[in-house]
Amino acid sequence: MDFFDVIGGIAMSCVQGSTLFQIVKFIRSKETAGVSIGFWWVINFGLICYLVYAIHINDWLYMTSNTIGITLSTISIFLYYYYKRKEAHHEVDR
């Protein structure tokens, strides 16, 4: 592992880890107000494309990073729809 692998690992951790802040916000607030679901779908699609490319060039760092990113963005998408559904049911109960 050389210097640039370490820098790449740090970058991967920062970029993919930033998604955790949104996931934590969803879970704590139990709402999705102000969140663009289109953003998450585009990010997820881009990460999938990037993963295919990383597999093609056999780059483990990008394969790992994009797999983590896909997992986290998929969790965000799931939570978005989960809490939107709960919000809709809550409004019907009012």
Short description:
The protein has helices spanning 3-29, 37-57, 60-93. By secondary structure, the protein is mainly alpha-helical.
Q: Mind explaining what this structure looks like?
A:
With 94 residues, the chain is mostly helical. It has one domain (3-93): Monooxygenase. Helix content is 87%, strand content 0%. It has helices at residues 3-29, 37-57, 60-93. It starts with a helix and ends with a helix. 11% of the residues are buried. The model has no long low-confidence stretch (mean pLDDT 89).
CATH topology: Monooxygenase
Fraction of residues in helices?
over 70%
The helix-and-strand class reads: mainly alpha
Task: Return residue spans where pLDDT drops below 50 for at least 5 consecutive residues.
Answer: none
Number of strands: 0
Q: What can be said about the biggest beta sheet?
A: none
Pattern of helices and strands: HHH
Mind telling me which CATH architecture this is?
A: Up-down Bundle
Report mean pLDDT, rounded to a whole number. 89
Strand content: under 5%
Q: Calculate Rg over CA atoms.
A: 16 Å
CATH class designation:
Mainly Alpha
Total number of distinct structural domains = 1
Shape: elongated
Terminal CA distance reads 58 Å
SSE topology:
Blueprint (H helix, E strand, L loop, with lengths): L2 H27 L7 H21 L2 H34 L1
Any key phrases for this structure?
mainly alpha; 94 residues; Monooxygenase; 87% helix; 3 helices; elongated
